């Protein structure tokens, strides 16, 4: 298949290299032309998780036409400025709330597939990724887009994959987990697994996840299983991983706090629901960003 991947971060490089290795024609899209040129020359390298390999992929600043699928793996704050070729189905695997809605406005809901991945990856340097742990990637057509061709391609490249009939629920599940793990790891400068070991952080993570789940319920999403347990399991499975938010803070870059805790706060406000812990971690991460 001919697949485009927008965003040359840890996840973008991981998906690009694995899909290229499985024989797909991969096109990585990077809005920065200097970096695109270097990535094209050096390729993308994956290490960790018992593997080490480099794949050459074509890299450019704009998505070409004629792709079978376009996977969006940019930071959430870039979603509204992305440009898409006509007709290609678009799969978002980004963190945060609001990406799907932005993509639907850009290309129409019939072309949008929502996704969430539990793969854990760290960008060691430009184009070099440490794959810290494998996890399930779930996909669901937002309205009428068939997610099966995308799923088959990912499965063939070795990703553990499943289709969901409830993509909105899946996104709330992922953002609730991120709302507990990402700000705390960023504020405390610790790997995901340490949140379970520090006596104060485990209950705090639990409270953050519960606040997010309460906001989800105001939009009609109810979970028959414990999101707190899922967040704790994610910390265990990705124990060594540096969360994407901590990677951003360490690199002095903007984080996805607006699309995660910020968006939860905005929606809580609309429902007149107090979310005091989410507000505090939001303010602390905003403080880290503006140092
Ligand atoms: O954003 C991240 O880093 C990831 O979504 C997760 C699951 C927290 C693992 O590090």
Give structural notes:
The chain is of the alpha/beta class. It folds into two domains: 2-165, Rossmann fold (3-Layer(aba) Sandwich), CATH 3.40.50.720; 168-290, N-(1-d-carboxylethyl)-l-norvaline Dehydrogenase, domain 2. It has helices at residues 10-21, 33-42, 99-107, 148-156, 167-188, 194-197, 201-218, 227-237, 244-250, 258-270, 276-289; strands spanning 2-6, 25-29, 44-48, 51-55, 58-60, 69-72, 90-92, 112-117, 120-125, 128-133, 137-141, 161-163. The strands form two sheets. The protein has an eight-stranded mixed sheet, with helices on both faces. The protein has a four-stranded mixed sheet with strand order 4-3-10-9. A hairpin with a 2-residue loop joins strand 3 (44-48) and strand 4 (51-55). The longest helix has 22 residues, at 167-188. It starts with a strand and ends with a helix. The mean pLDDT is 97. The structure holds pantoate (PAF). Pantoate binds at residues 95, 118, 120, 178, 181-182, 192, 234, 238, 241, 243-244.
């Amino acid at each position: 298949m001919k697949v485009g991947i927008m965003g040359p971060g840890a996840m973008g490089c991981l998906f690009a290299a694995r899909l290229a290795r499985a024989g797909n024609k991969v096109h990585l899209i990077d809005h920065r032309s200097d970096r695109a040129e270097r990535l094209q020359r050096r390729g993308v390298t994956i290490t960790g998780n018992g593997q080490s390999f480099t794949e050459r992929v074509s890299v450019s600043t704009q998505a070409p036409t004629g792709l079978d699928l376009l996977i969006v793996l940019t930071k959430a704050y870039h979603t509204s400025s992305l440009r898409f070729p006509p007709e290609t189905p678009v799969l978002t695997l980004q963190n945060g709330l609001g990406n799907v809605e932005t993509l639907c406005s850009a290309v129409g809901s019939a072309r949008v597939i929502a996704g969430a991945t539990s793969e854990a990856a760290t960008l060691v340097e430009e184009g070099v990724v440490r794959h810290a742990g494998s996890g399930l990637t779930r996909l669901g057509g937002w309205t009428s887009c068939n997610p099966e061709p995308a799923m088959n391609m990912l499965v063939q490249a070795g990703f553990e994959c499943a289709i969901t009939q409830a993509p909105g629920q899946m996104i709330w599940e992922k953002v609730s987990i991120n709302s507990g793990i990402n700000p705390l790891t960023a504020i405390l400068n610790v790997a995901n697994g340490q949140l379970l070991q520090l006596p104060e952080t485990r209950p705090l993570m639990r409270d953050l996840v519960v606040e997010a789940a309460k906001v989800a319920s105001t939009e009609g999403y109810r979970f028959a299983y414990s999101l707190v347990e899922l967040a704790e399991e994610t910390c265990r499975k990705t124990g060594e991983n540096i969360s994407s938010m901590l990677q951003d803070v360490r690199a002095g870059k903007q984080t996805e706090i607006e699309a995660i805790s910020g968006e939860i706060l905005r929606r809580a406000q609309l429902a007149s629901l107090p979310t005091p812990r989410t507000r505090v971690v939001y303010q602390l991460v905003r403080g880290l960003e503006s140092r």
